[in-house]
């Protein structure tokens, strides 16, 4: 509980009221099956931790300017991998528990997960060359 409060203070996350939920619980389009929005802890467990494929996890927030640049850039590069890697998007305002569990203290934070384990991570924005290297390392290409 103390960790949750510390993270909320650090990120100034609303815990109750109209700002706590933004109603962004919708799926992915048919053209982007390699990218999906995490819907909660059990969804994260099923689709990320238990995934047979490597997964890039993008912890982001709607109010985060760098996230709005990084997210689409990362989605495009993941799509180019043609299913070799998946991308899970986790909104920290909606899923504070996951942010705390994975020690996210700033956004954007991107984790590389393989067989349920975090094998690499970075915080902040990266250019396309750095992102391609990050993905190739995760895939093993």
Properties at a glance:
141 residues, alpha/beta, Glutaredoxin, five-stranded mixed β-sheet, 5 helices, 38% helix, 20% strand, globular, electron transport, redox-active center
Describe the protein's architecture and organization.
With 141 residues, the protein is an alpha/beta fold. The chain is 38% helix and 20% strand. The chain contains five helices and five strands. One of its GO terms (cellular component) is mitochondrion. InterPro entries: Thioredoxin, Thioredoxin-like_sf, Thioredoxin_CS, Thioredoxin_domain. Keywords: Disulfide bond, Electron transport, Redox-active center, Transport.
User: What distance separates the N and C termini?
Assistant: 41 Å
Stretches with pLDDT under 50, minimum 5 residues: 9-32
User: CATH homologous superfamily - what is it?
Assistant: Glutaredoxin
Number of strands: 5
SSE class: alpha/beta
Count of all domains:
1
Radius of gyration: 14 Å
CATH arch. level architecture: 3-Layer(aba) Sandwich
CATH fold-type name:
Glutaredoxin
Mean pLDDT: 84
Strand order of the largest sheet: 1-3-2-4-5
- Bin the strand percentage: 15-25%
Helical fraction equals: 25-40%
SSE layout:
Blueprint: H1 2-11, E1 35-37, H2 41-49, E2 55-60, H3 65-80, E3 86-91, H4 96-101, E4 109-114, E5 117-123, H5 128-139
Parallel strand pairs: 1-3, 2-3
Antiparallel strand pairs: 2-4, 4-5
């Amino acid at each position: 509980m103390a960790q949750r409060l510390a993270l909320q203070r650090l990120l100034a996350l609303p815990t109750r009221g109209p700002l706590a939920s933004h109603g962004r619980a919708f799926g992915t389009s048919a053209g982007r099956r390699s990218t999906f929005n995490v819907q909660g802890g059990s969804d994260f467990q099923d689709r990320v931790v238990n995934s047979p494929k490597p997964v890039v996890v993008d912890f982001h927030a709607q109010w985060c300017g760098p996230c709005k640049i990084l997210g689409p850039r990362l989605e495009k590069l993941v799509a180019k991998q043609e299913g070799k890697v998946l991308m899970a998007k986790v909104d920290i305002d909606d899923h504070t528990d996951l942010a705390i569990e994975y020690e996210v203290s700033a956004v954007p934070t991107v984790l590389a997960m393989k067989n349920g384990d975090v094998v690499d991570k970075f915080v902040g924005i990266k250019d396309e060359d750095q992102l391609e290297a990050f993905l190739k390392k995760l895939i093993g290409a």
